[in-house]
Amino acid sequence: MFRVLAITNRHLCAGSLIEQLQIICSGQRCPYAVILREKDLSAAAYGKLAQKAAAVCEVYQVPLILHSFWQIALALDFRYIHLPLSVLQTEKFQRHKGAFRLIGASVHSSEEAQEAAALGAQYLTAGHIYATNCKAGVPGRGLVWLQSVCKAVDIPVYAIGGISPAGEQFAELRQCGAAGACIMGGFMLLK
């Protein structure tokens, strides 16, 4: 089954992120899970936002995956976390990884994918695949690159970057071996 993950970015929302999550989770294109990627917040502000986001996701039975703030996740009893590879690599996180039921990591090469899997990641996000406004002027890595990442590991790989929620690219991503796709702008701008 090809799964879609929503990646948050409150700066793209017309209203509040919590209102946007209600729109996303209640809609016909409800994602398989939401990754709360608000890395520019303080730990305290992120924790408060995570609790509000969790309340919305729980209503619609959409798993919420916290991003980067693993210590806040532990303190608030969240057991799904997504990390940059640099955080997954730290000895401090590695000592606590057993407390998490689901660990994801962001990777940008086949070698990083293999390292993340060896360090305990259970799924990966890999990109950016297509041109995207989030990385203006930087060409996407493309489908051949995605296929090489997917072949390098035995865990699910989710493509990210320039993917439409309408699904036009899903077939070619699936053909590359991707387990699904991550969508930010398409969900954050959804009305």
Overall structural domain count: 1
Please report which band the strand proportion falls in: under 5%, 5-15%, 15-25%, 25-35%, 35-45% or over 45%. Answer: 15-25%
Shape-level CATH architecture: Alpha-Beta Barrel
Strand and helix order: EHEHEHEHHEHEHEHEH
What is the residue-averaged pLDDT? Answer: 96
> Shape from CA axes?
globular
- What is the number of helices? 9
- CATH classification, class level: Alpha Beta
- Indicate the CATH topology: TIM Barrel
Binned, the helix content reads 25-40%
The helix/strand class is alpha/beta
Strand count, sense and barrel status of the largest sheet are: 8 strands, parallel, barrel
Low-confidence stretches: none
Radius of gyration: 16 Å
- Number-wise, the strands total 8
CATH homology group: Aldolase class I
Order of strands in the sheet with most strands: 1-2-3-4-5-6-7-8
Distance between the termini: 26 Å
